[in-house]
Design a protein that fits this description.
The complex is a heterodimer of chains A (about 350) and B (about 210). Chain A is mainly alpha-helical. Chain A is built from 18 helices and four strands. In chain A, the strands form two sheets. A two-stranded antiparallel ribbon of chain A has the order 1-2. A two-stranded antiparallel ribbon of chain A has the order 3-4. The longest helix of chain A is centred in the first third of the chain and has 24 residues. Chain A is globular. Chain B has one domain. Helix content of chain B is about 70%, strand content about 0%. Chain B is built from nine helices and two strands. Classes of the chains: A mainly alpha (about 350), B mainly alpha (about 210). At the A-B interface, helix 5 and helix 6 of A face helix 9 of B.
């Protein structure tokens, strides 16, 4: 081709791209993946609106609108292409909302989404450059800022047992419409009180799986979150190893260390199922610890990441000051991601292993 | 004229906190409100100036091998004086600043000015350098403290600015807020410098 003739280049923005192998062609794009992750969250979202009513919907809308508006404003100001349609800001807003209690004052989700998008994402350079999971930064930000409002849990509207509501009002002692999460009861009153509050172990598991209990919007219904998670695994957007390892680590460690008899720790008497299906563990393991930007690149690295998340979660739940530690565990492991990537890196395509070369 | 230059360089161009990134520990720890920030800033300004003078006076007698211990002794003496004065006349501030007041002894900026400037210059320039650096440090502390107090508490210098409708995010007066505010100020200053550079180079071309 005549080197002066640039007409081809002008017509099509896609110029000749020189890259190393492998050359994989696919229709996947950031936009498509983000919207499908949003869709995977939809069952849990709908359930939380049914469960907590209008306040849940309002909280979610504020989070999503806040995140999208903040992203658009920052990108406009930085004179970058405005990419709010790719769904990543919507996803961040949605995930943030899922970490908040229903009926929270309106300014908290707004500040949270500003912290998530403005501070955690765009000060690092935007999508693909952020070190920490934006939604969890947003949650940690408002958790540190408004600890009281963030731990005032709205009671669910469906199928609440009288005993449970009673146990919750005992803890919060505010009024009848707020209460603690199961993990909060576990932390403050112990395992026995928790089981009693549900009226039996089987009833407790059932309630935790279905989700008619107190908690953030997104941490109540284990089954629907699992459903969304399986969709993501089936679409190969996330690796099954990550949630399995993270939830498995939590289960194993709580089984070994979590049991207490008369205030004394007795090994191998914990209740792993309770810890595995309660709190934000499932949404964290499927939707947060698998974030493409803030986790290691290789499967091996991701497994290490997930195991670390599990260990830190258990440490916080059993020995820390907070009843729930998924958010902080993922943020802490986000900080280790560059280190993990430094030592466990992908094999170069077609390269010969070190010993064979000698 | 030259002295004026020595003074002003500490204010913005070589601001201890935002440009040299020295003494970030007090900039995080005692800037949760303006009053503490100002108190700490002025204390450091006093210590840095006195220390620059004393180091400059003795610069020809101090053997280079033992210079750091000598500087530390000099700083510690001045800090002790400052602490006694604060304890006597501003006991509340003294209590608020707590351990950070004794830690002034090891603030990097004070040792750095002694080493970089006072040990090589005459008394008057050294004093002016200390004043300028101290003023820059105070400006930095007060601006961080002001932003943190307004956002995190809705007040300025103890006076309530924002009404009860304002729900301050506590995190801003906690340690992470300090990091975030300092980061944003440094970022804003860098952006300002970059824009200024672009403007001058563009002007040069025309």
């Amino acid at each position: 081709m005549d080197p002066k003739d640039n007409s081809v280049n002008k017509q099509t923005p896609e110029r000749l791209i020189v890259t190393s192998s492998p050359h994989v062609h696919d229709t996947e794009s950031v936009t498509k993946i983000m919207w499908i992750v949003n869709l995977a969250l939809l069952p849990a979202v709908i359930f939380s609106v049914i469960n907590f009513g209008l306040p849940a919907l309002i909280t979610m809308l504020i989070c999503i609108i806040g995140s999208v508006a903040c992203e658009a404003a920052v990108q406009y100001w930085r004179k970058k292409e405005i990419t709010v349609r790719d769904g990543s800001a919507v996803l961040t807003g949605l995930l943030l909302a899922m970490c908040l209690p229903a009926g929270i004052p309106w300014y908290i989700p707004l500040i949270g989404s500003f912290a998530a998008i403005g501070i955690a994402k765009h000060t690092m350079g935007g999508l693909g450059h952020n070190v920490f999971n934006p939604a969890h930064i947003g949650r940690a930000f408002v958790m540190a800022s408004y600890p009281v409002a963030m731990t005032t849990w709205a009671v669910t509207r469906i199928g609440m047992k009288g005993d449970f509501a009673g146990a919750m009002s005992k803890i919060s002692s505010l009024d009848a419409v707020t209460g603690a999460t199961p993990l909060g009861i576990l932390k403050q009153q112990g395992y026995r009180a928790l089981v009693d509050s549900f009226g039996g172990q089987a009833a407790m598991y059932k309630s935790l799986l279905i989700g008619n209990r107190g908690g953030s919007l997104g941490e109540t219904s284990a089954i629907l979150l699992l459903l969304g998670g399986f969709v993501l695994i089936a679409k190969k957007y996330i690796k099954w190893q990550v949630p399995v390892v993270m939830i498995g680590t939590v289960g194993l460690l709580t089984w070994i260390l979590g049991g207490k008899v008369d205030g004394k720790v007795v090994l191998f008497t914990g209740d792993p199922i309770l810890h595995m299906i309660s709190g934000g563990l499932i949404i964290g393991a499927f939707f947060m610890a698998t974030d493409m930007v803030t986790t290691p690149m290789t499967t091996k690295g991701q497994i290490l990441f997930a195991a670390g998340c599990g260990v830190i979660t258990v440490l916080i739940r059993l020995y820390g000051g907070y009843p729930e530690g998924v958010c902080y565990s993922i943020l802490l492991m986000n900080a280790f991601t560059p280190l993990i990537d430094r030592y466990i890196f992908p094999k170069k395509f077609g390269s010969i292993p070190e010993p064979a070369r000698r | 004229m030259n002295l004026w230059k020595e003074f002003t360089k500490g204010l913005i161009a070589e601001n201890p906190i935002f440009r040299l990134a020295l003494s970030l520990c007090p900039a995080l720890a005692v800037t949760s409100n303006v009053y503490n920030a100002l108190g700490m800033g002025l204390t450091v300004m006093f210590v840095i100036t006195c220390n620059n003078i004393s180091v400059s006076i003795f610069r020809k007698v101090i053997h280079p091998k033992v210079r750091v211990p000598v500087y530390i002794i000099s700083i510690a003496t001045i800090v002790t004086v400052a602490m006694l004065v604060l304890e006597a006349f501003l006991p509340i501030l003294f209590k608020e600043l707590g351990i950070y007041l004794s830690l002034v002894v090891v603030f990097a900026i004070i040792l750095a000015r002694a080493e970089v400037f006072a040990a090589k210059n005459k008394v008057i320039p050294a004093m002016v350098d200390g004043l300028g650096m101290g003023a820059g440090f105070t400006i930095g502390m007060v601006s961080i403290g002001g932003i943190r107090e307004i956002i995190g508490n809705g007040s300025f210098f103890g006076y309530q600015l924002l009404g009860s409708w304002y729900h301050p995010p506590l995190i801003v007066i906690l340690a992470p807020g300090g990091f975030i505010v300092i980061g944003f100020i440094i970022g804003a200053l860098n952006l300002y410098e970059k824009r200024k550079m672009e403007r001058t180079t563009a002007g040069g071309k025309i």
